[in-house]
Design a protein that fits this description.
279 residues, Na+/H+ antiporter like fold, mainly alpha, 0% strand, 2 domains
């Protein structure tokens, strides 16, 4: 029996050691990928052709995977939490506020009407092309691909001449269309599972997801800034406090919104917009 216990112990230690090496390898590959992101900007400027930066980064990532024979495994929830909040917070901070409020009607029409129209049209098209796929499942697939991504819009437009007002509209729409696509996907999945659909529930859920996300982003940022200002007046300003607060606010707003089943993406965007006024 002691011999068997010893064998089990050695086996567990071996598995633990292998897991440590796998984690270190993934961390190393991740750091190399971050270096590739830095180099991609230089490569994009050196190339004679105007190739979009995301395509260069995809090519570098494929090259790294081919050389190392592996990649970084990330759970979708972890990926969204690590990368989306700070990127969207920065976009909300930098977006021109005058253009956003001036063209709010057009932006809302695109973020709501165009997304719903795309989901319906693309859903019927997918169902027509693949009859074996149920219509509700086709709508769910269409809802996933219909909202444009704000980071991708900014990256693609860097090398293309676009009128400023049109660019502001595209950026604003890409920041706000998450609620429409998310609600469409939720109810398409529910219809596929239960076979029932309620317009009243859909409207109520959309209002909760959209308005709740924006309210949480604004409330978290306003509260944190007020507390920081109060502490700074009484105890003095901490040099690194502003940087840490700006880093933590998007994650806090995102997590609270997701916990309350609101849009974490809209919460991060609203936090960035609010921070640009409060700072």
């Amino acid at each position: 029996m002691p011999c068997i216990s010893r064998i089990r112990f050695l086996f567990k230690e071996t598995l633990r050691t292998e897991q440590v090496f796998e984690d270190l390898e993934s961390i190393t590959i991740g750091l190399v990928m971050l270096l590739a992101v830095i180099l991609s900007g230089t490569i994009s400027r050196l190339l004679p052709l105007a190739i979009p930066l995301p395509l260069i980064q995809i090519a570098l990532g494929a090259a790294i995977a081919g050389v190392t024979g592996g990649g970084v495994e990330l759970q979708p929830d972890i990926f969204f939490l690590l990368f989306l909040p700070p990127l969207l917070f920065l976009d909300g901070w930098r977006i021109p506020k005058e253009g956003l409020f001036r063209d709010k009607a057009v932006i809302l029409e695109l973020a709501l009407g165009l997304v719903v129209f795309t989901v319906i049209g693309l859903g019927f098209l997918i169902h027509w092309m693949i009859p074996a796929m149920p219509l509700a499942v086709a709508f769910a697939l269409a809802a996933i691909v219909s909202p444009t991504d704000p980071v991708a819009v900014s990256a693609i437009a860097q090398r293309v001449t676009i009128p400023p007002r049109l660019m502001h509209i595209l950026e604003g729409e890409s920041l706000l269309n998450d609620a429409s696509g998310l609600v469409c996907m939720r109810f398409a999945v529910a219809a596929a599972v239960t076979g029932a659909f309620s317009v009243t529930d859909a409207v109520g859920t959309f209002l909760w997801v959209a308005i709740g996300g924006v309210a949480i982003g604004f409330g978290v940022t306003w509260l944190v800034v007020r507390v920081k200002d109060t502490v700074s007046r009484k105890l003095g300003e901490e040099p690194g406090a502003q940087i840490l607060i700006s880093l933590l606010i998007p994650f806090g707003a995102y997590l609270i919104a997701e916990h309350l089943h609101c849009s974490g993406i809209l919460a991060a965007v609203a936090a960035g917009v609010t921070m640009s006024y409060a700072s």
